[in-house]
Amino acid sequence: MWRSCAPSWAPPPVPVAFTLGARDVRAAGHAHCRRPPLPTGPVPLGSAAAPALHYPLGDGTDPAAWTALKALTEHLRTGGG
Question: Concatenated DSSP letters for 8-71?
Answer without folding.
Answer: ---PPP---EEEE-HHHHHHH-HHHHTS-SSSSPPEEES-SSS-EEEEE--SS--THHHHHHHH
